[in-house]
Amino acid sequence: MDPEDPRLKQRPIWGLLILALPVVGVAVTFVLYAGMLWLGLSGRGASGDPIVLAFDACPEARPLLAARLQDMGLTDAAFEAQGDGVMITLTPTGDAEVDAQLPETLAMPGALQIRGGDLLLGTNADLIDATVRLDLMMTPSVLLRLKPPAAERLKDHVRSDPGGQLRFLVDGVQIGTQSNRNSVAVGELEIASLDHPGDRALMRAVAAWSVVLDHGPLPCAVQPR
């Protein structure tokens, strides 16, 4: 080949930079998404004057209530037995709407049902854990990780009924569905079809469900006083 062939001449630096821009852009985008995900999941520290919550509850419910508060980042909660119930003193989250919903969230039984038609395919006993997942559009959903026997049971059912759907119920109320045609990782279920207007309402609902499903169901009725 002719050594003077222009194709052999070195490309200018600015040309190489232009070629590298898409790669750099993708890397920066993923870093930014990772940062937003970390901020969303880590939340912010509790702040403000202590508040007191009182519940009618059996002693067996207290460890689950404490675990739910830990998941919410309220690590300083102090429990005191009070007759047939418990009094909890804690530092609020700093979000007035979240603080107002704390008694309701803590008192949710958190009983999960995964149904395919009339079949009960899974309950809390089949969960490894429940957490929040954010997609690339930062839309939240509840991610359920299942124990292997339940994962196989769900996989067999979905394959046997490709035109059907899974229904997710918490305390008897349907909170979402998932088409059996959706491609999902074995052992994971994502509750994404949620009917809550507004991003904040959706995030609060997803956060509450993930907490109560990760630490539930409660062994007895818990009633705010």
By DSSP (H or I, 4+ residues per run), the number of helices equals 5
The strand order across the widest sheet is 2-3-1-11
Using the coordinates above, name the CATH class of the largest domain. Alpha Beta
Order of helices and strands: HEHEEHEEEEHEEEHE
Uncertain spans: 28-41
- In CATH, the architecture of the largest domain is 2-Layer Sandwich
Question: What's the alpha carbon Rg, rounded to whole Å?
Answer: 24 Å
What's the CATH topology label of the largest domain?
Gyrase A, domain 2
Mean pLDDT: 83
Distance between the termini: 89 Å
The profile of the biggest β sheet is: 4 strands, antiparallel
Description:
The chain is α+β, with helices and mostly antiparallel strands and 225 residues long. It has three domains: 31 residues; 62 residues, 2-Layer Sandwich (Alpha-Beta Plaits), CATH 3.30.70; 103 residues, Gyrase A, domain 2. Helix content is 36%, strand content 27%. It contains five helices and eleven strands. A four-stranded antiparallel beta sheet has the order 2-3-1-11, covered by helices on one side. A hairpin with a 2-residue loop joins strand 2 and strand 3. It starts with 12 loop residues before the first helix and ends with a strand. About 6% of the residues have low confidence.
